[in-house]
Amino acid sequence: MGELIRLTAADLAAKLRSGEVSAVEAAREHLEQIEAVDGSLHAFLATDPEASLAAARSIDERRAAGEELGELAGVPLAIKDVLVTTDMPATSGSRILEGYRSPYDATSVAKARAAGLVNIGKTNMDEFAMGSSTENSAYGPTRNQWAGDRVPGGSGGGSAVAVGAFEAPLALGSDTGGSIRQPAALTGTVGAKPTYGGVSRYGAIALASSLDQIGPVARTVLDTALLHDVIAGHDHHDSTSLDFAWPSMAQAARGGADPGTLKGLRVGVVKQLMIDGVQPGVKASFEASLALLEAQGAEIVEIDAPHFEYAVAAYYLILPAEASSNLAKYDSVRFGLRVTPEGGGTVETVMSDTRAAGFGAEVKRRIILGTYALSAGYYDAYYGSAQKVRTLIQRDFAQAFQQVDVIASPTAPTTAWCLGEHSGDPMQDYLNDATTIPANLAGIPGLSLPIGLAAEDGLPVGLQLMAPAYEDARLYRAGAAIESLIADRDGTPFWAQAPSLAGAQTGKAAL
User: Fold this and answer.
1) Does 80 participate in catalysis according to the annotation?
2) Does residue 155 have an active-site annotation?
3) Pick the catalytic residue: 52, 179, 241, 484?
4) Which of 1-15, 105-119, 180-194, 494-508 has the lowest mean pLDDT?
5) What domains are there in the chain, each with its CATH number?
6) Active site residue 179
7) What is the pTM of this model?
8) What is the top EC class of this enzyme, as a single word (predicted)?
9) pLDDT tens per residue, range 433-468
10) Strand 190-193 with 214-218, pairing
C-alpha cells in the first residue's frame, strides 16, 4: 500500500504545495488502491483513470508555471453519483439513468475543480438516495471496509467507504435525512451536513428539495472543514442558496484542535434522541465521550424536545411527497431509459413500462406513498400535518439552543448491520435515521465523527453534533476538540486504526 493514500488531505496538500510529491503521483496511488480493493467493496460506480491523471497532470503543470492554486489543489476527490459531472456518468444509483452524461457540472463539483481537486471517480449510493444501507443501488451494494459482510450505511455508503478504505482522501455526498452522517458513523469516517442552503444543490439529482443538502466526507474533522470551505457559498443557480459570508471552517477546526477549548461549552443531550433501540455498545461509547467532555470542563445539559419523537413519521411523508414530484421527470420521453413494447405503444404504456423497469422497489414504494399523501382529500391530513410537525421540531431546536451551544447524540442508534438483515422490513432502515432526521427537518448543520468501537461487535460508533443554522463553524471547532481528545485517549487517530482489507469480501476486514 502506497504511503500517500494514508495521508490526511491536509498533509497530502502540504506535500503537493512543497513539490515533494506530484498530483499525478497522488492520483495514481489512489487509483491503484481502487483497483486493489474496490472489487470487494464496490464503493465506486465509475472511474476514468485516463481523465483523472490528465486532470492531475494539468495541476502539476499549472503549479510548475507558478500559478496560484487552492490549498487542496491536486488532492483526489470522490464524488457521490447524485452529482452530475461532465467527465463521468451520473446515474443516482438507478437503471433509469444508466449511462447518462450531463452537459454541465454540479456547482459543488465545479467549485472543487476550480480549487484544483481531481475527480477520482463516482461513488455508489442507494437509488435516488432512498435508503440507509447502500443496498438499494441498482448496481449492487457497497460493503463496509471494517467488515465485508456489513452495510456501510446510506444513502452515501460509497463515498464513506471510498474515504475509509483509502481510495480517496475526500468525497462529496448528499444528506437528505442523514445520508452523509449515518454512513460516516458506520464506517468510522467524518461527515457534515451544512446549514440548508449553505452549499448549492444545483446539479444534484433531486430527491426532496426542501431537505437535500450537499456536504463533505473525510477522515478527519480538519479535512472535512477544508472541503466544506471549497464548496460553500452563494449560487444564483439555486434559489434556496444562502447569500451569507461564511467564516472559514478550516480555521475553526484548527482553532479547536486543543481539547481545552471544550471548557465552558454547553452540550445538550436530547432525551428523545436516546431512543429505546440504541445499541448498548453505541450508548456506552456515547456516554464515555460525554464523560470525557465533562472532564474537560464542558457542561452537559439534558434537553427536552417533545416533538422529536414524531420526526421520522413526518419525514417519511414529506420526503416521499417531494420525491414523487421530483421523479416525475423520468417519463421515458426527455432523457434516460426508454422501454418500448414490441410493436410500439402509447406514451402511457411506454412511460409505465419504462418506470417499471427503471425504478427499484424502494423508489416505487416511496413514489406511491408520496403520491398518495399529495392526493386530493389527503393532502392536509398527511403532507400538511407533517409540515406542521416540522415547524414544531424547528421550535424545539430554537428553544434548545437558548440553553446550549451544541446538541450531541449518537449519529446512528446501531453499528453496521449485516447485508440483507433488514431485507423485507424497510422500517428498520427508516428508524436508523431517527437521530439524524431532525436536523434536516430544521435545516440546521450536523457533523458526525468517530468516537470508538462498540464492545459487542468491534464496529465504529459515531457522535453527532448539531448547531443553530449558520453556525457550521461552531461544529468544526467543537468537533476538532473532541477528535483530539479521543485521539489522545487512544494514542492514535481513529481513522488510522481501521483494519486491513484482506477479509473485505466475506468477513471482518482490515485496512
Assistant:
1) yes
2) yes
3) 179
4) 494-508
5) 4-307+392-497 (3.90.1300.10), 309-391 (no CATH)
6) yes
7) 0.96
8) ligase
9) 999 999 999 999 999 999 999 999 999 999 999 999
10) antiparallel
